[in-house]
Automatic annotation (TrEMBL):
<keyword id="KW-0472">Membrane</keyword>
<keyword id="KW-0812">Transmembrane</keyword>
<dbReference type="Pfam" id="PF01794">
    <property type="entry name" value="Ferric_reduct"/>
</dbReference>
<feature type="transmembrane region" description="Helical">
    <location>
        <begin position="92"/>
        <end position="114"/>
    </location>
</feature>
<feature type="transmembrane region" description="Helical">
    <location>
        <begin position="54"/>
        <end position="72"/>
    </location>
</feature>
<feature type="transmembrane region" description="Helical">
    <location>
        <begin position="152"/>
        <end position="170"/>
    </location>
</feature>
<keyword id="KW-1133">Transmembrane helix</keyword>
<feature type="domain" description="Ferric oxidoreductase">
    <location>
        <begin position="16"/>
        <end position="137"/>
    </location>
</feature>
<protein>
    <recommendedName>
        <fullName>Ferric oxidoreductase domain-containing protein</fullName>
    </recommendedName>
</protein>
<feature type="transmembrane region" description="Helical">
    <location>
        <begin position="126"/>
        <end position="146"/>
    </location>
</feature>
<dbReference type="InterPro" id="IPR013130">
    <property type="entry name" value="Fe3_Rdtase_TM_dom"/>
</dbReference>
<feature type="transmembrane region" description="Helical">
    <location>
        <begin position="12"/>
        <end position="33"/>
    </location>
</feature>
């Protein structure tokens, strides 16, 4: 394989798909991690990493979309890329990728540009859209990705999923303990 093969549109599509998954998994993990009470003193550091990895992920996904649009082997029109279920190639799984992009875009733009206008309560509800976005992205990659059956690829998806599940479970347990703590209960009259 010569050097040009490594930088072919096909290889860049595959690489950008995995990088998008990596950055969004990292961002989601850091977001969950930074919300844990044991890390109060380091919260700003982890939130900064969370936001940066989210932007890297979104930009990588945009690069992925542009490359798919330029691909000659399985061509996609702009409509197929941006209108869910419109693609001829794997319409459901292509739609999950499109919907994932829209949800990630909504979460990141609301976080960085509209949080003050939205208010914290609405922003938090919008921010939860990152979970279905991440799940849609993973299903999209597993179903359409040409490397999805490779052991290394399955390991990446399984380890990313395990990390998110474990951190989500820890966050769930911690939030349950906070709700039940005596400090949070209203005093009786």
């Amino acid at each position: 394989m010569n050097i040009n093969d490594y930088f072919s549109v096909w290889n860049l599509i595959r690489t950008s798909g995995f990088l998008g998954f990596y950055f969004m998994t990292l961002s989601l993990s850091l977001g969950l991690f930074s919300s844990l009470s044991v890390l109060k003193k380091k919260k700003a550091f982890f939130v900064s990493l969370h936001q940066t990895s989210g932007w890297f992920g979104l930009l990588t996904i945009i690069f992925h979309i542009v490359l798919i649009w330029q691909d000659q082997y399985v061509p996609y029109s702009l409509g197929e890329l941006f209108i869910p279920f419109y693609a001829e190639n794997e319409p459901v799984y292509s739609a999950l990728g499109t919907l994932s992009f829209y949800l990630f875009f909504m979460v990141i733009s609301s976080s960085d540009f509209f949080i003050k206008k939205l208010g914290l309560k609405i922003w938090k509800k919008i921010h939860l859209a990152v979970i279905p976005a991440w799940v849609f992205m993973m299903i999209h990659g597993l179903a359409i990705g040409t490397d999805s059956t490779e052991p290394w690829s399955l390991f990446l998806y399984a380890s990313g999923s395990s990390l998110i599940i474990v951190l989500g479970f820890i966050k769930y347990l911690e939030s349950g303990m906070v709700r039940q703590s005596p400090d949070r209960q209203k005093p009786s009259k």
